[in-house]
Amino acid sequence: AFTTPCGSYTGFLGQALLGGEPLTQMTQWYLYPEKPFIIVGTQDMLLSRALNRGYGSSPFMWPVEYGLLNNDCLWVMDEVQLMANGLPTSTQLAAFRQSFGTYGPCHTLWMSATVSQEWLHTVDFPTSADDDTLSLNPEDFQNDGLERRRKAIKLLHRLELPRQRRTRADQPYDYGEIAGAILERHQQGTLTLGVFNTVPRAQGVFQGLQDALKKAGGNQELLLVHSRFRLKERRQRAEEIGHDLPAAGRIVIATQAIEAGVDISARVLITDLAPWSSLVQRFGRCNRYGEFPQAKVFWLDLLDLQKHAFPYEGKEDSLVQARARLENMEGQSVAPASLPEVDETIRHGAVLRRRDLVSLFDTTPDLSGSYLDVSRFVRGGEDMDVQVFWRDWEGDPNERSPEREELCSVPVGQMKDFLSNRSRPQQAWRWDHLESEWQRIEQRDVRPGQTLLMKAEVGGYTIEKGWEPDSISNVPVAQDSLDEAIGQPPEGYDDERTNTGQRGWVTLRNHSLHVKEEAQRTLEALSNLALPEEIRDSVVTAAQWHDVGKAHCSFQEMLLQTLPESEEQSEYRKELWAKSGGRGGNHSRPYFRHEVASALVLLQRAPAGLTGWARDLAAYLAMSHHGRVRLSLRSLPTLARDRNRNPNLDYQYLLGFPIDANDFLPAADLGENVTVPETEIDMSISQMGIAENGERSWLDCSLSLRDSLGPFRLAYLEALIRTADRRASSQKQHDASEHYDC
Questions:
Q1: How far is CA 37 from CA 27, 52, 536, in A?
Q2: C-alpha span between 90 and 47 (Å, rounded)
Q3: Which of 54, 131, 214, 309 has its CA 20 to 30 A from that of 68?
Q4: Is residue 581 within 8 Å of residue 736, measured between CB atoms?
Q5: What's the pLDDT score for residue 436?
Q6: What angle do CA 679, 684, 689 make, to 5 degrees?
Q7: In the 8-state DSSP scheme, what is residue 501?
Q8: CB-based contact 60:365 (threshold 8 Å)
Q9: The pLDDT value given to residue 689
Q10: Rounded Cα distance, 146 and 133, in Å
Q11: Burial of residue 352, with CB atoms counted within 10 A of its CB: 0-12 exposed, 13-18 middle, 19 or more buried
Q12: For residue 499, what pLDDT is reported?
């Protein structure tokens, strides 16, 4: 059992990564690196985080998630035949964790009914040895339940269509004909499942079934399942599929999303031609438990693979081979025990290389404000998504962060087409973390992994069919998002969002001690990782010194702006504060970052005994504890854009500190006899090469730490400081009441 600010818990905690921000502290898995968590998510959400580019997550949180998911962690990859480029990325990551090193073991388990060891072989990851493979043994086959499943009869037939109707060029067959064939083969009181390779195809067949049932007066229950629904609607469909079958039976139309994680058993299965490994998964959804004496599987051929291979472009050979196997098994059972052993080849597309991984450690945006794109490593091909949510508002958008229930995955290409529709042009907004505002984007600005805001009135989504770009109906806004008391705007560059609990005035001294104590408790709980003593000292020192830069007059004035000019404010000026009772005012210096001062002062005033790389590590952890400034000290892209607009502006400041003038940090008490004297802030470390005082540049120090510790370990230490800061900030602290009658 263990205790958190939200209560006591025993065993494992669970968390689903589905985009959006969890609303409760208990579901913020990254706050508890020492606690056991089971995290479930899609490959997009998890692999992007393992690459330091978390989809649907703030860029400032990327290093925390990256560090925690690449250390002291077990990865389980299910249905690897569906992972595309994500599969070689997972094996390369496993290899790099071995070569760079991690804190604690970080193993990977790949699972599938059709997995081949050769699929896992990449340039840095050799093929696994036989003793690393787990499979059914002869004793397992003695189980009656297993044997009944393995030998359940499901007879295979090709679904022949009269092909009398003309079809559109983008359709391999007439959807109305398919709907009629499904109704003809459906049996009362049972489940019929249709699996189609694309969402538009599934939606077309679903519409054909609706029309046919309406015309015939049928009362079969009809459900559509695919990945382009919001989480709220996906959950509803999952519940409906699990309900008892009605007397007339149920017809489920789905995409390959049904291949994994859905435990259903159909009496009749209709499926598009697909690679053999995918077909085997689909066969497993028919007569799954052997409860029927006989079930039937019908397959639909795709005659023109040049036009209709999507989403299996580049795998046309696999489709041709699958077609030949299906034809050879005509009239036979496709039960697991009857299927031939097939050595299917998977071609790896983009393969993550060592230089790619190392470059992704840096989360500094480029001069355009963009980040390195990892979509080719996460999934690849055309199967790349953005997350979309709909809201109602007037004027300029000032919307809160999306909740998970609101988010809908949309293919990048379809979103671009939606925004560039000449007959009905639409608008979308993305959150600019540097400007801290929603900014309108155009077709060319759409990138995989983005979270986009759209007006509900523009359409593009229906409760019944999910993402439907041709729909012009007003999109119902998820009800929870209408509650003004829930949520806050996404995190911006100037937003120091560490208060996860009660707000109150907290002195710099007390906050520094609270964070130090949290870091010490976390390190003690992680004693199994056997962190070296020098590492532990650097972490604890960074925890106590991380906010010393808040003693700067610019930061103190920002906090005190929340108080009126009065005797009360004069009393508050007698202390140095780390937290205020509100969100604070505006900095007098644009883009002022207190953590820069914290790190530079720590380099100059490090405690006795903390020298060399241990001192540099403590300074780096202090610098990076908000995720804004990490490897490099340089101007922001927004400043460069402003300079282009007005060349006469004075830009002698770097992240709020003068480059060519003196600047001082007042003396500060950090508690436990640690008092930092007044210190001149030396920005020469931001320059290239060796400074006049003999110090290496900040970039040189940071890269040296990354290369000596390895990117995974360094990010993990960042996460320890970040979580200690957040947890300390969540505690109910109101130091002002201890000092003054307010």
A1: 10, 20, 23
A2: 8
A3: 131
A4: yes
A5: 79
A6: 140
A7: S
A8: no
A9: 63
A10: 20
A11: buried
A12: 47
Q: In whole angstroms, what is the distance from residue 410 CA to residue 471 CA?
A: 14
pLDDT, residue 535, reads: 97
- Number of neighbouring beta carbons within 10 Å of residue 99: 10
Q: How far apart are CA 652 and CA 663, in angstroms?
A: 12
How far is residue 361's CA from residue 703's CA, in Å, rounded to a whole number? 10
Question: What stretches in the chain show pLDDT beneath 50?
Answer: 1-10, 22-23, 481-486, 498-500, 645-646, 649, 734, 737-742
The residues near 737 (Cβ < 8 Å, ≥ 6 apart) are none
pLDDT of the residue at 230: 92
pTM for this model (two decimals): 0.83
| Bridge partners for 543 per DSSP | none
* Per-residue tokens: 699: 């970039």
CB of 440 closer than 8 Å to CB of 428? yes
247: its two tokens: 């007397």
The pLDDT value recorded for residue 194 is: 97
- Angle of helix 199-216 relative to helix 175-185, nearest 10 degrees, comes to 60
Structural domains of the chain, ranges and CATH numbers in brackets? 42-140 (no CATH), 153-338 (3.40.50.300), 384-479 (no CATH), 506-739 (1.10.3210)
Structure tokens at 150: 């393995």
Residue 285 CA to residue 269 CA, distance in Å, equals 8
For residue 304, the tally of other CB atoms under 10 A from its CB is 9
